[in-house]
């Protein structure tokens, strides 16, 4: 299984299985990920946001790269 890691400001992580990702959208500095288990995840690159992740740009780049394959 391959996972993608989301790193939060407090140093905690969320790992999401790549095979469970069904949809991804990017709007401005926000990212929404829909999964096959009907959960949705929202992340932001804005440090003031509650759902801020430190590695936003890295995750975005990885997801866009994976979509090309």
Would you summarize the structure shown here?
The chain is built from one helix and five strands, in the order βββββα.
Written overview of the protein:
There is one protein chain. This protein is of the alpha+beta class. 17% of the residues lie in helices and 41% in strands. It is built from 1 helix and 5 strands. The longest helix is centred in the C-terminal third of the chain and has 12 residues. The model has no long low-confidence stretch (mean pLDDT 93).
Instruction: Give the quaternary arrangement of the chains.
Output: single chain
Shape: globular
First-last Cα distance: 17 Å
* Element string (H = helix, E = strand): EEEEEH
Biggest β-sheet: count, sense, barrel?
Answer: 3 strands, antiparallel
Find the structural class using helix and strand composition. alpha+beta
Number of strands: 5
Give the number of helices: 1
Which regions are unreliable across 5 or more consecutive residues at pLDDT < 50? none
Mean pLDDT: 93
Report the helical percentage: 10-25%
CA radius of gyration? 11 Å
List keywords for this structure.
69 residues, alpha+beta, three-stranded antiparallel sheet, two-stranded antiparallel ribbon, 1 helix
Strand and helix map with partners:
Layout: E1 3-7, E2 13-17, E3 21-27, E4 30-35, E5 40-44, H1 56-67
């Amino acid at each position: 299984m391959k996972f993608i890691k989301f790193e939060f400001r407090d140093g905690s992580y969320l790992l999401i299985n790549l095979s469970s990702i069904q949809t991804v959208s990017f709007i401005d500095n926000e990212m929404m990920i829909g999964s096959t288990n009907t959960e949705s995840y929202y992340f932001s690159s804005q440090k003031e946001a509650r759902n801020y992740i430190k590695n936003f740009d890295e995750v975005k780049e990885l997801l866009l790269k994976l979509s090309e394959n």
